[in-house]
């Protein structure tokens, strides 16, 4: 069954300033979806790594953020899209410590560990799309619920 999707937001990733907006948008969208602070921070951290890859390795692109709702479940899906050089060997790129850019090589692998669903689609010469999806777990915070 497909998740029913609300409206998708599309944010450019073409500069360091854009990275800050993208992080801020994800923090806000995650809070609105009902993610707790720890879950929000995991999503923002993964976003930070993936959006930076879009900018640095992909030559810029955009993020699509879609709030998800499936029955009572709430979630958030984020796609990082570029039309850059692509990734020839995605499995190698996902390896801890692998970097073609002199980085730490922990961005992709780290982001994957922070979220529930992670997909990387890339074709050399045509670009890269990384999509992460997270669902709200646990019960609503007592501070916002009934006493
Ligand atoms: N959007 C992208 N476009 C092209 N190559 C990418 C992209 N994202 C990641 N890569 C490749 O995967 C490698 C690993 O990425 P990552 O784990 O974030 O490490 P780092 O960014 O520190 O190099 C990068 O060095 C790069 O070769
Ligand atoms: Mg990186």
From TrEMBL:
Pfam families to which the protein is assigned, alphabetical: HATPase_c
Gene3D superfamilies for the chain: Histidine kinase-like ATPase, C-terminal domain
Residues covered by the Histidine kinase/HSP90-like ATPase domain: 40-133
InterPro entries: HATPase_C_sf (IPR036890), HATPase_dom (IPR003594)
Protein name: Anti-sigma regulatory factor
